[in-house]
Write a structure and sequence with these properties.
The protein is α/β, with parallel strands linked by helices. It is built from seven helices and eleven strands. It has helices at residues 49-56, 79-89, 105-109, 121-130, 146-158, 176-191, 203-208, and strands spanning 7-18, 21-33, 38-42, 64-69, 72-73, 90-93, 164-168, 195-200, 211-216, 219-227, 230-234. The strands form two sheets. Strands 6-7-8-3-9-10-11 form a seven-stranded mixed beta sheet, sandwiched between helices. A four-stranded antiparallel beta sheet has the order 2-1-4-5. The longest helix is centred in the C-terminal third of the chain and has 16 residues, at 176-191. The protein is globular. 41% of the residues are buried.
Amino acid sequence: MPDRPFIETIDVVKTYKVGSSMVTALDHFSIGIEEGEMVAIMGPSGSGKTSLLNMIGGLDRPDSGAVRVKEVEINRLGEEQRARFRKNNIGFIFQFFNLIPSLTAIENVLVPVMFERETPVKRAGELLERVGLGDRFDHLPGMLSGGERQRVAIARALINDPMLILADEPTGNIDSETAREIVSLFRELNDEGKTLILATHDRIVAGRAKVMIKIRDGRMVRGKAHSRDGMRSLSPDKGGGVPE
C-alpha cells in the first residue's frame, strides 16, 4: 500500500463570492480515500459536496491547501496539464447529464475522444450495450428518458477507462427503479477496481457505498466505513481523514 492515500485533500479552503458576500464552500477540509473504494458524500444543498468533487476532479482550484490524486498534486498543474490529467484518469457524471442535444447517444459517448487520431466507435457501442442502450445508438437526447440519458452519461464517463469516477447527484433526476439499477452498475464498476466518489442526497446510493461521509458547511461532521468487523466510524476530529 502506498504511503499516501490514492486521493487526498489537505486543509482545503474554497470560497466564492455571492453578491456582496463571501461564502465558504470548503473549510479546511481534509480527507483520504483509498484506491478501489466507493464513497458516498452526503449533505444538504450548499454543504460543499459539489465543490469537493470539483477539487478532486481538477475542475476548480482551492484557495489554499492541496489536492492529490494518484500522488499528483493537481491544484499545482497548469490548465492544459489538468485537462490532460482529467481526460486520462477521471470520468465525470453530472446530475443534469450534460449531453449535447444535437448529437446521438453514441456521438455523445464519443465526445471526450472526438479529437483522437482513432475514434473508438466500437468501444462506445460496447459501453452503450453494457448500460442497456444497445437499441438507442442513434437516438438524440430528447428522444430518451431521464434514466436513459443518465446511462449515456455513464457510458461517456467510461470511454477512456478512467481509474476514478466522480458523480454529482447521479440519481437526482431519474425514477427510483432506474436509480437502483444505476447504483447496481456503480457497484459492478467498483467491484472491477474503479474508485467511485458520489455526491448524493439519495440514501439508496449511500447505503450501497463502502464509505459514507456527511458534510455540512464545508466540514465533515460524520463518517463511517465498512470493515471486516462491520461499520467503523471516521472521526472528523482527525481532520476528516479516512483511517486505515
